[in-house]
């Protein structure tokens, strides 16, 4: 893509904003209707709704013993990644559909969890599945934003395989 032609961020935010709204609306409902650490069965022995307060990252990954320090670290890291993502998007780094969709899903997830960290002091996790297998009994609780981040990773992997399949310029 030419350096003079910068892609508009409007299509990006046309995907980001509805996903962000869904994430925040679902978390708002959980915070309003559930007590912290409450768990309600939806499908017996498989799926529960809950209200988990997470100051760490995926799979309870934290770098500090203090929940506040973890929350601040991941808040800063998330904001840095979000700015970088929008910058790279504007520079045309995501030049195929899977990577553009991946960027939108990733930004949606980042913004959803950043909002939680700023408003609640933790990420609101509420989807809890139990697959009854080792390491997934139950699976760690997650939310819509986490699902968006997961889908972004899948889309970036797909984009990377597609990029390898394309012929090199000048070949």
Characterization of the model:
This protein is mostly helical and 171 residues long. The protein is built from 4 helices and 3 strands, in the order αββααβα. Strands 1-2-3 form a 3-stranded antiparallel sheet. Helix 1 packs parallel to helix 3 (97-119), helix 2 (67-90) runs antiparallel to helix 3 and helix 3 packs antiparallel against helix 4 (144-165).
Explain the layout of strands and helices:
Blueprint (H helix, E strand, L loop, with lengths): L9 H24 L5 E5 L3 E8 L12 H24 L6 H23 L3 E7 L14 H22 L6
Antiparallel strand pairs: 1-2, 2-3
Helix pairs in contact: 1-3, 2-3, 3-4
Quick overview of this protein structure:
This protein has 171 residues and is mainly alpha-helical.
Widest sheet: strand ordering = 1-2-3
Number of domains: 1
pLDDT < 50 runs, ≥5 residues? 1-5
How many angstroms separate the termini?
Answer: 19 Å
Basic shape = globular
Helices and strands, in N-to-C order? HEEHHEH
Mean pLDDT: 88
Task: Give me the number of helical elements.
Answer: 4
Radius of gyration: 18 Å
- Number of extended strands: 3
Give the strand content: 5-15%
Q: Percent of residues in helical segments?
A: 40-55%
The major beta sheet can be summarized as: 3 strands, antiparallel
What structural class do you assign from the helix and strand content? mainly alpha
Quaternary organisation: single chain
């Amino acid at each position: 893509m030419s350096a003079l032609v910068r892609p508009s961020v409007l299509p990006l935010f046309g995907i980001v904003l509805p996903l962000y709204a869904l994430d925040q609306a679902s978390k708002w409902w959980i915070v309003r209707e559930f007590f912290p650490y409450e768990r309600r069965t939806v499908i017996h022995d498989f799926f529960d709704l809950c209200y988990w307060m997470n100051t760490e990252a995926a799979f309870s990954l934290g770098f500090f013993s203090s929940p506040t320090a973890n929350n601040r670290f991941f808040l800063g890291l998330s904001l840095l990644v979000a700015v970088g993502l929008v910058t790279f998007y504007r520079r045309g780094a995501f030049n195929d559909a899977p990577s553009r969709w991946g960027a939108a899903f990733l930004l949606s997830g980042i913004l959803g969890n950043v909002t939680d960290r700023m408003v609640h002091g933790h990420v609101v996790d509420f989807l809890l599945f139990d697959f009854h297998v080792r390491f997934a009994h139950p699976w760690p609780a997650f939310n819509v934003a986490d699902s968006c981040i997961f889908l972004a990773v899948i889309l970036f992997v797909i984009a990377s395989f597609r990029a390898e399949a394309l012929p090199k310029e000048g070949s």
